[in-house]
Design a protein that fits this description.
mainly alpha
């Protein structure tokens, strides 16, 4: 036990501290958890962990956006949601208490942009609402309720009235939500 610190070279630890919003202790804990997901204790920097294994983390298991989170932070050419250790650190950094509103809102926007087209349109908003309410018969909104809710969201958020919410419009809305920064977090 306690050998994890020696497995992460000091120069890499320092570099990760400079490049993220994470403390030394958070990086070492992330290294330990990532290594456990890999099933071995050496060389997590280049190896990938599958999205299925990442989703076994208790911190993600109950998040309704867990698959989108992995998709957004994955650098895999296969677009399979698998994460390298550095992807994992980026994820934890964006969701850390120390991350800025700008960083958090940027990643929230990307997570909610289900079709990855750079805007939140009615289809993205419908998927977002379904993720939040659940897709069971007792929690799913009726077509009329969904239409009205999306209409209200666009009325409030779509400043240029083009039928979509872009990143700057999203960030404007988020800047008026005092709870966003404290609720957009994942702590190991």
């Amino acid at each position: 036990m306690g050998g994890t610190a020696s497995k992460l070279p000091k120069d890499l630890l320092s570099e990760y501290q400079e490049l993220t919003f994470l403390t030394k202790q958070e990086i070492l804990l992330a290294h330990k958890r990532f290594s456990e997901l890999q099933g071995r204790e050496n060389g997590p920097y280049s190896s990938r962990v599958s999205v299925e294994k990442i989703l076994t983390l208790p911190e993600l298991k109950s998040n309704p956006f867990r698959k989108r989170i992995c998709h957004v932070f994955s650098t895999s050419d296969l677009k399979d949601g698998s994460l390298t250790f550095e992807d994992f650190l980026d994820l934890l950094s964006a969701f850390s208490d120390s991350a800025t509103l700008e960083i958090k809102s940027h990643y929230a926007f990307r997570i909610f942009d289900f079709d990855d087209d750079g805007t939140l349109d009615s289809r993205d908003l419908e998927k977002l609402v379904n993720c939040l309410t659940g897709e069971t018969d007792d929690t799913r909104l009726t077509a009329e309720e969904m239409r009205q809710l999306i209409s209200n969201i666009l009325e409030e958020s779509d400043i240029d009235k083009d039928g979509t919410v872009n990143l700057s419009e999203f960030q404007h809305v988020i800047s008026r939500s005092p709870d966003f920064v404290s609720s957009f977090k994942i702590v190991l």
